[in-house]
Amino acid sequence: MAGVENSIKPTHFLASSEPRTMTVRRKVLVDPHMCEGHALCVHSAPDVFDVTDGDVATCSERPSEKLWDQVAAAVDACPRGAITVVEDQ
Length: 89
Ligand code: SF4
Prior knowledge:
Elements: H1 2-6, E1 26-30, H2 40-44, E2 49-50, E3 58-59, H3 68-77, E4 83-87
The structure holds iron/sulfur cluster (SF4).
Iron/sulfur cluster (SF4) binds next to helix 2.
């Protein structure tokens, strides 16, 4: 019986099956050389993007968490691929 007892592994050292969450800070950028200012991003995410001068979009680089779905929609809507989301160091 001593052999059986020795084969039992301490479960507290095993990996948890609980999903792990990791917060990754990110920010959104508009490439002014790519942007053509037609404001599709503003329609998708009006609280994040703005085209005040009519030429190039500006954005809030670190919008609140609830606005990131809108940012994703803006990335998809931008015909120039001018919007990127990068990890914020
Ligand atoms: S949709 Fe893209 S190209 Fe158009 S204004 Fe917004 S960032 Fe610029």
